[in-house]
Write a structure and sequence with these properties.
Radius of gyration: 18 Å
Strand content: under 5%
Helix content: 55-70%
CATH architecture of the largest domain: Orthogonal Bundle
Shape: elongated
Distance between the termini: 53 Å
Number of helices: 6
Number of strands: 2
CATH class of the largest domain: Mainly Alpha
CATH superfamily of the largest domain: Winged helix-like DNA-binding domain superfamily/Winged helix DNA-binding domain
Length: about 140
């Protein structure tokens, strides 16, 4: 299927389906780029990233950096995420997972494992307590 055929097919989609498709394509492209650059010599891979910084590998969400007007996934710090979740006052683990995913929705997305790591870190730091049923209590 060619790019033109895909574009014609995409025009029939609802705008939310178009956004979901775009997000999936971006995530897949980033994974493909990471695979390609991991197979290259480090010097060559860094030159590719320097040539196009928009395709740079994203860092984990627990990087402590101040937020800037145009945020990328690496610029949401753990403290920022906790502050936003406190405002939302999530009562269930699934709700919290969806809320974290929504924070990254227009920033390229976030994997479910990274979301679970954030929640685990919050639990280990005793910010929240999670019961076996998935209920959350804030400490």
């Amino acid at each position: 299927m060619t790019k033109e055929e895909l574009l014609l097919a995409a025009k029939t989609l609802h705008y939310t389906e178009k956004l979901a498709l775009a997000q999936s394509l971006i995530q897949q492209a980033r994974q493909d780029l990471e695979q390609i650059t991991s197979q290259l010599h480090p010097c060559v891979a860094s030159e590719i990233v320097k040539a196009n910084p928009a395709t740079a590998k994203t860092e984990s969400p627990n990087i402590e950096q101040p937020a800037k007007p145009q945020e990328t996934p690496a610029e949401l710090s753990f403290d920022d995420i906790v502050a936003r979740l406190r405002k939302l006052n999530c009562k269930k683990e699934k709700t919290m997972m969806n809320s974290i995913a929504a924070m990254y929705q227009f920033r390229g997305g976030i994997s479910e494992t990274d979301i679970k790591k954030i929640i685990l870190k919050m639990s280990m730091q005793k910010i929240i307590s999670i019961t076996e049923t998935g209920a959350i209590s804030w400490n």
